[in-house]
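Hi all, a correction to my earlier message: I attached the wrong file for cellulase. Here's the right sequence:
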Amino acid sequence: MSMYGRDPWGGPLEINAADSATDDDRSRNLQDLDRAALSRPLDETQQSWLLGPSEQKKKKKYVDLGCIIVSRKIFVWTVGTLVVSAVLAGLITLIVKTVPRHHHGKPPPDNYTLALHKALMFFNAQRSGKLPKHNNVSWRGNSCLRDGKSDPGTTMKDLVGGYYDAGDAIKFNFPASFAMTMLSWSVIEYSAKYEAAGELNHVKEIIKWGTDYLLKTFNNSADTIDKIAAQVGVGDTSGGSTTPNDHYCWMRPEDIDYPRPVYECHSCSDLAAEMAAALAAASIVFKDNKAYSQKLVHGARTVFQFARDQRGRYSAGGSDPALFYNSSSYWDEFVWGGAWLYYATGNSSYLQLATHPKLAKHAGAFWGGPDYGVLSWDNKLAGAQVLLSRLRLFLSPGYPYEEILRTFHNQTSIVMCSFLPVFTSFNRTKGGLIQLNHGRPQPLQYVVNAAFLAALYSDYLDAADTPGWYCGPNFYSTDVLREFAKTQVCFCLFFFKR
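and the right structure:
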């Protein structure tokens, strides 16, 4: 429906139906008028205008071309026209070939666009399974085509595909699901930017490669499930074992020939809820592909119900995942997954769950702590709060959601305040890099997540005609958030450039 209601120009430009119905009548009337005018006797002046002097006809001359006889005048004009046309065509061709050409090529991409190209290429380099022909990393090939089949203890025999983690060949489904959720969120909000950079189809292909694999990790055609494949491959070398695995044997994935165990979980709420978030967010990305989008939604519903029914952490009990990606809790994934499922389905039961005060309390929404406001593969609360603030800013669903949504909105404002240099929630390096992980390893993943949230929230405020937000009594414009995001990303680019 048009936002202006009826035509803003004041009425349709088309001819009205009543008028068009009289077109034949008008035509007949005009013909009658023409016939009436010509039926009147013409005086000598009128005859000279319309008919010409009939008594002064000149004798025409003709040219015999053998098969046809034409007027000499027409013949001369025809031949002359052809000659002039040929001369003009020759002159134009000569000018085109001799005048130097000045091609104005496209300007070179800026550093942000180049960084985007390289960031997406990383996913191509980390692909597992049978690679597509157009994969743009020449030194990668098909790898680990027996994932699932090489482990006789698992019932999931087709676990080919997905992404390797980083420097090894393990497939950790918990952080990989978070990566797909974040990529999908960026495409949902900034698809035009991806398209302008020539990367929209590429990033959608990257997401689909990940979600296709996630759908293999459980029975996605069922309405209820009792297990999920949480990980393929192991990396524990602490016991001095010489059994080949993905950390003991540092080798190309293409050369792996040892069995790769599959870690299954029957009580893994954090993993299942994160997978639900990834599949639900991706379903919005692929909404133009109705069949695939519905398949993703069904899978998201199934794993989220499993997460709610079979409570527990996927990395509990000192399992192999706990050594690398240990999950601290699953409450934040409940809020996160519920919010994404609401956006994907419009089902208010998911919004009721995501905004339940007890759930928010368990997720840590009402207290601080050293990692409060830090979005990561383990802690989704800050992302969920921004996502639900979006709902309040743009749709304002009102009762009974307004109170908790307002709380999430206020908490988002506090998180954004903590990113600013004037506050001391987090230390900074001498170069200005915010230390969201308090000096622990791998700082950049937390920094880029914070930069994304800051830029996104500033765009949300602008779209809602809100010029900024308050940190206590002080008001800050959205430009401050963009500047924070820009400086942090520039620091990361400088680090990689070195």
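Sorry for the mix-up. The mean pLDDT is 84.
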